[in-house]
Amino acid sequence: MAHKKGVGSSRNGRDSKPKMRGVKAYGGERVVPGNIIVRQTGTKIKPGKNVGLGRDYTIYAMIEGVVKFQPYSRSQKMVSVVPLEQPIASAE
């Protein structure tokens, strides 16, 4: 009598949903408050100025500006949002 069950398609069929992680706004791109810049597990990329860190380590913009990636250490990066320069209105 067989002690192993026949392994077929009835034993397959389990898989997790994709998490859609990664960089969503690259360096030089313009963002508005609330835009997601990076979705990640853990702080692979550190938050810099004018960005927030969500409970699931999502980095998002807190002001309107341009995304800027820069080195944090030899092996890590940091992302910030640089504010846009406001045009100076001439008084006439």
From TrEMBL:
GO terms (BP aspect): translation
Molecular functions (GO terms): structural constituent of ribosome
Family: Belongs to the bacterial ribosomal protein bL27 family.
One GO term describing the cellular component: cytosolic large ribosomal subunit
Coiled-coil regions listed: none
Protein name per UniProt: Large ribosomal subunit protein bL27
Organism annotation: Candidatus Viridilinea mediisalina
Domain of life: Bacteria
Pfam hit, one: Ribosomal_L27
